[in-house]
Each structure stands twice: as structure tokens, then as C-alpha cells.
Amino acid sequence: MTLDDWLDIAAIALILIGALLCLTAAIGLLRFRDVPTRLHAATKPQVLGLILICLAIALSLRSWPVVAFLVPVVLIQLATAPLSAHMVGRQAYRNGTIDENALFVDELAESRRTPPAAGG
């Protein structure tokens, strides 16, 4: 077997693993009940699955312009997934849809008691 064959096999394996991770993220969004677990399912396996699929595309096509296109895609995903998860989690906390008894540390409890414009 040549190096090209091994790279193609690695690309197929990476696509399958990445697709499986994206599938588990989608199933987790449907099956989990509360916001924190859904956020975990939406961010971690989905981002890793996308990275693996992009790596498989780069291995399969073996082209530097393709790699140059995929690097910003991965970087933007790495930047936006945690930010969007943080914003959704914060809004769920403000709406009261998070079970406060399940929190180990509630760093936002003080800000919830004092309105933002109260100066305290």
C-alpha cells in the first residue's frame, strides 16, 4: 500500500468518527432535559467532530489552498461555540430555567439579587 492509500484510509476513518460525534451531539440536544447538559452536547462533540471532518478533508484533497480555507473555519468554530454556549447558559440562568439546586457554585447569585442599574 502506498502513502496515498494510507492517507485515504485515515481520511475515511476521521470522517466516520467526526460524523459519529456530530450525530451524538444532535442526539444529545434532543434527549437531554436541561440547558447545561444540552449546551455540553451542542458544543464539545460537535466542535471536535467538525475538526475531525475538516482534517479528513485536508488529508483527502492534499491541497494547501484547501487547508488555508479550512483553518479559518475551524478557528471561527472554536471561537464562536464557547461564546454562544456562554450566552445561552447565561440567558437560561436569567430566565430561571436552570435548576439552582444542581449548581455547585452560583457565581451569579449576587447579580441576581441586585438589579444591574442599582449600582451595587
UniProtKB/TrEMBL annotation:
Ribonucleoprotein as a keyword of this entry, yes or no, is no
The reply to whether Transmembrane figures as a keyword in the UniProt entry is: yes
Q: Which UniProt keywords apply?
A: Membrane, Transmembrane, Transmembrane helix
- The transmembrane residues are 6-30, 42-61, 67-85
InterPro entries attached here? PhaG_MnhG_YufB (IPR005133)
Q: Out of the domains of life, which is the source?
A: Bacteria
Q: Which Pfam families match?
A: PhaG_MnhG_YufB
Q: Which family does the record claim for this protein?
A: Belongs to the CPA3 antiporters (TC 2.A.63) subunit G family.
User: What name has this protein been given in UniProt?
Assistant: Monovalent cation/H(+) antiporter subunit G
